[in-house]
Structures are given as structure tokens and as C-alpha cells.
Amino acid sequence: MHDNFIRPAAASDARPSADPPGNPVDPAVAAELEAAGIPVGLRPLLAAHGVGALVVKLGIVFEELSAARAVATMPVAGNTQVAGILHGGASAVLAETLGSFAAWVHAGPGRHAVGVDLNATHHRPAALGRVRGTCTALHLGRTIATHEIVITDEEGHRVCTARITNLVRDNPAGSRAG
After folding, report:
1. What is the DSSP letter of 87?
2. Contacts (Cβ under 8 Å, ≥6 apart) of 121
3. Which of 61, 63, 69, 124 has the least CB density, counted as fewest CB within 10 Å?
4. CA-CA distance, 29 to 1, in Å (whole number)?
């Protein structure tokens, strides 16, 4: 039980629950959301799906989450390639997770975000400790959200720079998505 959320959720970060009143949240999903550092105000909307198996497997923990900025950490250990350094794909997953979650917050109730482009440039290896991804909005429009993600090692050296563009869409009628 740890909640690494540093900044209290602003009223604009909270989205109404997609679950009907009185619908209990699965305790395993509630524990997953808490362990991932998801802000309390955003947990009801994720209660039906959790944060996703890959976020859990890679050990990604959120520290901040809003449409304009998202921050999360990920351990290097367990996410390495054969040479013993952080796998570039793990960096891409951290980047896409941050950008997609930030775009999802931006989308708001009744809408969802779908990634349409991700690129990542790997600058240097990380072999120990945790990396931190800091996601900053570049464009938050009605139909497109673009974020830049900078991943650094514990010494603050840039490991990777990524950019993700998400298409923001209305949910299909009757959908519980997003």
C-alpha cells in the first residue's frame, strides 16, 4: 500500500465515476490503482479496467497525473534487455503510458484517447535504479492531444525523449470506455 501521488488532484483532474452508484469496485483493481499511484479523484473512472497489465508488469508508478503534465517512475531492474540496460521498448511503454493517460484525462467524460503516433529517441543507457518520465502537453485540442515525454535516470541524465499524438474521440453509444 503506497500512494506516490505527490500533487493533490485539482478539481479539474477529477472525472465523474463511470460506475453506477452502489457498484462496488473489485478490491484487486482498487489495490492496483493505489499501487500505481493513480490520484484518488481519477480512480473511479479506471475502476472497471484498472491501469492495464503492462503498467503493472513494468512497475510503473504515477507521481502526478493531469492533462497538462504527468510524471511516473519505473524500475530498471526487470525491464532490461540482454546487455543489462533498460530496454528501449520499456522506455517506449513508459512514454506511451504517460501520454495516453494524460490524453485520457484531457478527453474528459464520454470521450477517450487513442494513440496514433509514438516516436522515441534513446540518448543513453540506464542500468540501475529507477527512471522517471515527465510528460508535458504540447497541444490539447478538441480532436488531437500531443505530449512530449522526457525520461531521465536517477542522476537527472536524459535517457530518452519521446512524443505521442492521441486522437480524442467520443465514446460509442452505450460504451463504458474512457
Report:
1. -
2. 160, 161, 162
3. 124
4. 13
Q: Cα 37 to chain center, whole Å?
A: 10
Between CA 29 and CA 43 the distance in angstroms is 10
pTM over 0.90: no
Q: How far, in Å, CA of 168 to CA of 72, rounded?
A: 22
Segment 61-117, tens digit of pLDDT: 999 999 999 999 999 999 999 999 999 999 999 999 999 999 999 999 999 999 999
CA distance readout (Å), 98 to 23, 70, 118, 172, 177: 28, 6, 12, 24, 18
Strands across the sheet containing 61-65: 61-65, 69-75, 130-140, 144-152, 158-170, 111-122
Residue of 32, 34, 64, 96 marked active site: 96
Contact partners, residue 122, CB within 8 Å, separation at least 6: 88, 91, 159, 160
For the chain, give the mean pLDDT.
86
Active site residue 63: no
Its sign, for the CA torsion 150, 152, 156, 158, is: negative
